[in-house]
Amino acid sequence: MEKSILGKGNKIYVDDKEYTVEQQTISGSDIRNIANLDVSAELWQAIPGPNNDKFIASFDIITVEDGAKFISLKKTICPGK
Known about the structure:
Layout (H helix, E strand, L loop, with lengths): L2 E2 L5 E5 L2 E5 L3 E3 H7 L6 E6 L7 E3 L4 E3 L4 E7 L7
Parallel strand pairs: 1-3, 2-8
Antiparallel strand pairs: 2-3, 4-7, 5-6, 5-8
């Protein structure tokens, strides 16, 4: 399923789902919104190479590159540990 913010533009992938964005820059919050991510999930940009993935906060501004990949990870809270 493809969602679009403004129409045709660059494709980004969040958890292997494709979205199209026209903006040249986008916030972490915008990515969370278009991908309908749970508020408790962490958002990471997948960058090739070992240990290169980058944590994306809601207020971070990312330059959109066609084919950019993002991953969401649920935070795990273990009370008492």
